[in-house]
Amino acid sequence: MSPTQSLPQVESIAQKEQKFLLQIYDRYPLVVTRGCGCYVFDTEGNRYLDAIAGIGVNALGYSHPRIIEVLVEQAQQCIHTSNLVYHQYQGELAERLCAISGLDRAFFASSGTEAMEAALKAVRAQGRALHLRKTKLVALNNSFHGRTFGSLAITGQPKYQRPFGPLAPQVTFVDPNDNIGLAKAVTDDTAGIILEPVLGEGGIFPLTAEFLHLARELASRHHALLLADETQCGLGRTGRYFAYEWSGIKPDIVVTAKPLAAGLPLGATLFTEQAAQALPLGLHGTTFGGGPLACRVAIEFLSILDELLPNIRLIGDRLRGGLEEIRRRRPIVTEIRSAGLMLAIQLSRPGHDLVIRALQRGLLLNCTHDTVLRLLPPYILSSEQADELLRILDDVLAV
Ligand SMILES: *Cc1c(COP(=O)(O)O)cnc(C)c1O
Prior knowledge:
By secondary structure, this protein is of the alpha/beta class. It has two domains: 7-64 and 308-396, Aspartate Aminotransferase, domain 1 (Alpha-Beta Complex); 90-290, Aspartate Aminotransferase, domain 2, CATH 3.40.640.10. It has helices spanning 7-20, 53-56, 65-77, 90-101, 112-130, 149-153, 158-161, 179-185, 209-221, 273-276, 292-329, 352-360, 383-396, and strands spanning 32-36, 39-42, 47-50, 105-109, 136-140, 171-174, 190-195, 198-199, 205-206, 225-229, 253-256, 267-271, 333-339, 342-347, 363-364, 366-368, 372-375. Helix 3 (65-77) runs antiparallel to helix 11. The two termini are 19 Å apart. The structure holds pyridoxal-5'-phosphate. Pyridoxal-5'-phosphate is lined by residues 111-113, 116, 144-146, 196, 200-201, 229, 231-232, 257-258. Pyridoxal-5'-phosphate binds at residues 111-113, 116, 144-146, 196, 200-201, 229, 231-232, 257-258.
């Protein structure tokens, strides 16, 4: 088992940050120097099993040989062009994303939030084109869609919104899986319904198939767009390409990002042909989004993902079973929620100290929403590594 990194190592780096960085992050006492597979290493070579994987970004773990190969080759050729010219990989990546999502067109951005902004602008533009009053949005309590003004306006968590008001108005929030509330909230003035099929940052809450079908039906009936934010739950995380597939619905707009370019910043907004009409020539754009390096790596990511979907389901089930056993043994655990390799351990009290306990035992995870331990392990996690994770967690939760 790894001992923790000696404190002076962490402190010298932390001191510099405290002096020169905006103090917006409460970091764990760990300096990561490199990663390999599902493990990261600190400055002293101690090893940690990474069960949060860059908050869902490092779905292929670290230093995946196929990613390194295309990354190096493409970096030698061209890292960035601009959207003034063509390169070989944007169209090909768009084609692949359309094929797996069933949607028709893609826009590339540099992050999840930015991909959300494109989606929100499309929703607004299409609503207004139908009727000047059709500008309202319906979103979910406990949701998370990013930190820009637009994304923040539909993020149903007062703790993130309060200091920045007034935000874009006309958003109605409904509780996840509240069918009656949703039916009441959607009207002819609704331009879009926005949801995460599995709420991620809010604590891993899968939406029911019934709720998703209702959202689809209400959106269609009121000529509103249904927007699925799959930034965290999409691209294989739940064992299928997209989490909405489990319910059989098809959204009008899908947002993806986190694992898309294996650690390079890339987000994609996918549109049906009809939704895409809302953003014609010149109405949206970006400098960085969809560069050749990020797109080429993303194409490789999707090729690798093809082969990993069965493992995601298998290891997801194994972890789920193991966590349920831990819940029966450890009274601090009140509930386990999961969808594939997106797992939550609901605690009866705040869990920040448990993150540190886990670190001391060689496991990196995250506490979200104060009382939820969140696991977003890499898709390449093996059965042995899943069992290692469960063993450490069992020990950490013996409090
Ligand atoms: C992380 C996340 C975002 C924001 O993505 P960034 O890349 O941090 O901008 C948006 N929506 C969901 C569901 C997320 O999990």
